[in-house]
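Quick entry, no commentary yet.
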Amino acid sequence: MKRTVVLIALAVLLLTGCWDRRELNDIGIVVAVALDKEPKTGKIIVTSQIIRPAALAKGASQKEAPVEIFSATGNTTIEAARNVTQVLDRRNVYFHTKLLVISEQIAKEGVISYLDVFTRGRESRGYIWICVAKDVPSRDILGVKKGIEQIQARYLVSLIRNEKFHFRSHTLNILRFYKQILGTGINPVTGALEITESPTYPIEQKPEKTTRNIRLHRSAVFKKDKLVGYLTPQEARGYNWIIGKPKNGIMSMPSFLDPEKKYSVEILNSSSDIIPSLKGGKASFVIRVKATTALAETQGQTKPLNPGQMLKLIKKAEKRNEVIIKTEIETAIRAAQTKFKSDIFGFGSSVSKKYPKEWVKMKSRWEELFPEAEYTVEVKATIKRTELTISPMKAEE
């Protein structure tokens, strides 16, 4: 008898339709969101980039845009998002949202209240990338079409994923951003998107002489949830060395063979350690960075070198690489301590792990203590490969 009841119950569950099923024709799939504020009213402006499935269908006109952009205002983020339905014939869903762009005004004011809906909502996901729109309204970022991707949001996400090839910026997803805001001993850094202009070339078949581009060139620095400035590309490289992010990318410097020429090494891998020490109530840190590289290009020319000469040249290059990396790291720390006064590296977090009892007394004063913290930088860089060419080349005269 019990078995019969269980089978009937399973049949009821399996044969009924999904209670919250939504037809594709009834929903608007949001792939990117921008947050701004109205200057006069202070209301929140939510701009949604929504996919147009018909434009992506096989045989659809190439002139038809694959996305539509809609904006609406409200007293809260979710109210503004819902008000989009006043101008859109679909109900927005956020399961596939890839990117959130926030304006400088909101970032300087403090973003935590604006992010609440994205961390609380069932539809949003923690892997949404978060960026700051530098010098322009965030909705303008969603309005620039550039790149190979059909859907502009995917193009912007590709820029973020390409950070590994240059490590001149650093972008967080909402989950990591939120954790760092709510945690102690570390402040978040995330990507900044800018609009730039470049010449239009005849092959592009565009009537305009210039075209607008999006550039992920800098990184936004926060103190808790408030924007306090931007890392320069060099400072961002130093920041990335400290957190052990570079796994790819290029470093270029003057050639030993010809000072007017350059040589480049490709980063194969890197790692870092932040080692804290406490003495007399003062914190100091040792930052140890290891980098493995390959010689990728040399413009300087010479007659073929024997193995001994080549090894000597590689050792000199390794020492110079270490100097460059150390300089970039020190530049980043100097900026964090003097310009931003924000511990973006997690120095405080490393203290809390090694000295938990002492950290309880220090954490309320860490914003004051961090700018005065002393540090030492140790770098070990090795060149493992010279790729397909063993020695630099020079044409016979």
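second:
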Amino acid sequence: MQVTKQNRQTPSRASRRQQIIDAAIEVVAREGVAGASFEKIRQHAGISSTRLISYHFDSKDELLYAVVEQIVSQAVGFMQPRIAAASGALAQLDAYIRSNLGFLASRPTYLIAAVKVLSVATPEDSRVTHEQAEAPVRALLRAGRDSGELRAVDEAVAAMAIRSAIDGAAIRYSLDPQLDLTALADQLAQLFTTALVARSNEQNQGRTPP
């Protein structure tokens, strides 16, 4: 296994690394990627030298990658138990949408930092990010189709539509913090679950077929 800076960390060094990532998230959210210099991150973290940042991260890109990793990890930790607690594919789809936007509403600094980092990602990085984000949605749609609970649809298109709606809400919030993400989550969850529920399952869900 290749030895990296991260897996060489002692507890104290791991704590310092985490301190730098947390500061970077705050600075990126406030200043944007271009304005998030090591010096500004150093000041926000309250550490003595930018050399301490360079010890843990070879470049700004590596630090930004760690920022995105942390945001994704925290989001997954928030969402997974809520999705797992839902019974059936339709309820899990509802929980996926609500918990994703619920996490962003609870961590607005994470939301804004993620939007700003991803806005300057390379096309290849953007493609990989979108594919990774859409994969669990496709799996959920496939499971719902197989169980007969959800309509048989093009999973790639439906997953793209769901992720685009969530990502679009995040971008709108970064521009307008007065946006009510909870209310928006309610509307998006209803919109997609209504659109994707199987016709044979609509009566059970208390919905009138179109």
